[in-house]
Amino acid sequence: MIAILDYGSGNLRSALRAFERAGKEVLLTADYEIALEAEGLVVPGVGAFGACMEGLKSVRGDQLVRERLTKARPTLGICVGMQILFADGVEHGNHGGVAIWPGRVEKLTAKVLPHMGWNTVDVASGSSLFSGVEGESFYFVHSYGVVEKIESSALQSWTDYDSRFLAAIEDGAFSATQFHPEKSGDAGLHLIKNWVSTL
To answer: What is the pLDDT of residue 132?
Structure first.
């Protein structure tokens, strides 16, 4: 069973439908034990970094994610759900994140923000998440991202939008995407199935 963490942020229904199409039972939940024991956990997120962190903490989601990390249980962050897995973010002030990875979420350097629409990804060599969709485009909606290469052995895939930002990260049981796979058509569904196949 895949749990989609319901903490008041994210396109929960579209995520639910997309992960159901991948062939697994899917449950929207804020229950700590259910989310902890699920085969896979999805952490969605839309809006501002600080507000998402507040929502996450309200259901002990930060503690939940760290506990899943110690148990090496597959977890996938999406959009701001990816951003809050980093150490901190600067949107509307400085905010601490869950700190699964080092790195700061900063405002993108671009002529037009938000970065909204389809873009390709420079996929990291050896990526299992992007297997079969390395040359495809994915759907982004954001103004902030991780813009510096992080000090980690994790696979890091990047996208250019006037400047470079982190589009996806794969690190053992933990993965995350800045784009919305649930809104990225067939390529997004393929990527979701790739992740589900690892559960």
So the answer is: 98
Burial degree of 190 (CB within 10 A; 0-12, 13-18, 19+): middle
Strands 144-146 and 101-107: antiparallel
Residue type (1 letter), 95: H
The whole model's pTM is what? 0.96
DSSP annotation string for 73-118? --EEEETHHHHTTEEEE-TTS-EE---SEEEEEEE---SSSSEEEE
Evaluate whether 133 touches 117 at the Cβ level (below 8 Å). no
Catalytic-role residue among 91, 136, 170, 182: 182
183-194 average pLDDT score = 97
Query: Residues with Cβ < 8 Å from 74, sequence gap 6 or more?
Result: 39, 40, 41, 173, 174, 175, 195, 198, 199
180 given a catalytic annotation: yes
* DSSP SS3 for 33: helix
Active-site residue (options: 52, 79, 115, 142): 79
The single residue of 54, 151, 180, 190 carrying the catalytic annotation is: 180
